[in-house]
Amino acid sequence: MSKRNLIASTVIGALALGSSAVVSADPLNDLHKEESKIHVDAAKSQEKINKLYEQSLDIFSEYRQVVDETENLKVYNDYLATLVADQQRGIDSLQRQIDGIEGVKRGVVPLMFRMIDSLEQFIELDIPINLEERRARVERLRDIMANSNVTTSEQFRQVIEAYQIENQYGQNIRAYQGKLDFEGTEITVDFFNLGRTVLAALSLDQKNAWVWDNDARAWQKLGDEYLSSVVTAVRMANKLVPADLIKLPIKAAE
Question: Source organism's superkingdom (predicted)?
Answer without folding.
Answer: Bacteria
